[in-house]
């Protein structure tokens, strides 16, 4: 559990990502409901109807005044409308493409942690890389780390460019994985497998593969080499994929998403 003194406000807390993070924090008891504030434009409690102790407001300024830690989770295009003063606050962000410099200019904050998470946070399955501005203290890190870890796995990284890359790599859940699953489902259907069976089979495949890769200490590369060495049916498929341009195409897709992360926020 994070410090009992921490009061956290999430601006955009009823959006998909903000709500997912908030629910993870409540579920894991990383923060108590009475120390959680949510700001949205409607004032509707929405996904927090079952948590009457959570504070909901339409006034981001009220939230900023009440909280010592503020999490920004609004669409990047709406960030210029976030008018808060946070000079003495710890500001966290999961907004794609909005830089630490932009946040400092807009909010007056100097203690800023920029992160990228995903809606999988609600299941505590997100991966959250984060980087800190120079003014962030060890105490600030002690506040932020358990909040991010309540959402799944988390790592501090060295610079903001990596946050932009992870926005492409791990931010879109299911994202790229869904693309591969859809391609496999389409192939199965083309070969005569009923659509609902193909869908169920591939969903279970990706679920089991994810569990195995997450829990097995062997690297993905080691799994591939082991399957090729076994010289079975999967080996034939793996060798065919190695001879294709699939790896390059994946890199091109990630690069396109990374470059978009650099330009998605208003200048």
Structural description of this entry:
The chain is an alpha/beta fold and 267 residues long. It folds into 2 domains: 151 residues, NAD(P)-binding Rossmann-like Domain (Rossmann fold, 3-Layer(aba) Sandwich), CATH 3.40.50.720; 89 residues, ProC C-terminal domain-like fold (Orthogonal Bundle). An 8-stranded mixed beta sheet has the order 3-2-1-4-5-6-7-8, with helices on both faces. Helix 1 links the parallel strand 1 and strand 2. Helix 6 crosses helix 7. The chain is elongated.
Structure summarized in a few sentences:
By secondary structure, this protein is α/β, with parallel strands linked by helices.
Strand arrangement across the biggest beta sheet: 3-2-1-4-5-6-7-8
The termini sit apart by: 37 Å
How many domains make up the 3D coordinates? Answer: 2
What is the CATH C level class of the largest domain, in words?
A: Alpha Beta
Average pLDDT, rounded to a whole number, is 95
State the fourth-level CATH superfamily of the largest domain: NAD(P)-binding Rossmann-like Domain
Question: In oligomeric terms, what are we looking at?
Answer: single chain
* Low-confidence region ranges: none
What is the number of beta strands? 8
Largest sheet: 8 strands, mixed
Q: Write down the CATH topology of the largest domain.
A: Rossmann fold
Indicate the CATH architecture of the largest domain: 3-Layer(aba) Sandwich
Strand content: 5-15%
Class computed from helices, strands and strand pairing: alpha/beta
The radius of gyration is 21 Å
Helix segment tally: 10
């Amino acid at each position: 559990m994070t410090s009992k003194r921490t009061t956290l406000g999430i601006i955009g807390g009823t959006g998909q990502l903000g709500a997912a993070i908030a629910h993870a924090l409540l579920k894991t008891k990383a923060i108590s409901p009475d120390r959680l504030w949510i700001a949205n434009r409607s004032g509707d409690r929405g996904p927090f109807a079952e948590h009457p102790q959570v504070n909901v407001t339409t006034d981001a300024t009220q939230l900023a005044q009440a909280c010592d830690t503020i999490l920004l989770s609004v669409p990047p295009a709406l960030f210029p409308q976030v008018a808060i003063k946070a000079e003495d606050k710890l500001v966290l962000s999961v907004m794609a493409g909005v830089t630490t410099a932009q946040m400092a200019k807009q909010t007056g904050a100097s203690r800023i942690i920029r992160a990228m998470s995903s809606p999988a946070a609600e299941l505590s399955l997100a991966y959250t890389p984060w980087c800190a501005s120079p003014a962030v203290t060890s105490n600030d890190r002690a506040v932020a780390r358990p909040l991010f870890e309540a959402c799944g796995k988390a790592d501090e990284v060295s610079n903001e460019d990596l946050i932009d890359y992870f926005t492409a790599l791990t931010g879109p859940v299911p994202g790229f994985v869904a693309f591969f699953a859809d391609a496999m489902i389409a192939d199965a259907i083309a070969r005569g497998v009923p659509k609902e069976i193909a869908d169920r089979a591939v969903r279970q495949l990706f679920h089991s593969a994810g569990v195995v890769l997450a829990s097995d200490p062997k690297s993905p590369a080691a799994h591939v080499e082991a399957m090729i060495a076994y010289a079975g049916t999967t080996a034939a498929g793996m060798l065919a994929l190695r001879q294709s341009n699939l790896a390059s195409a994946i890199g091109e897709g990630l690069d396109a998403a990374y470059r978009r992360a650099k330009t998605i926020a208003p200048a």
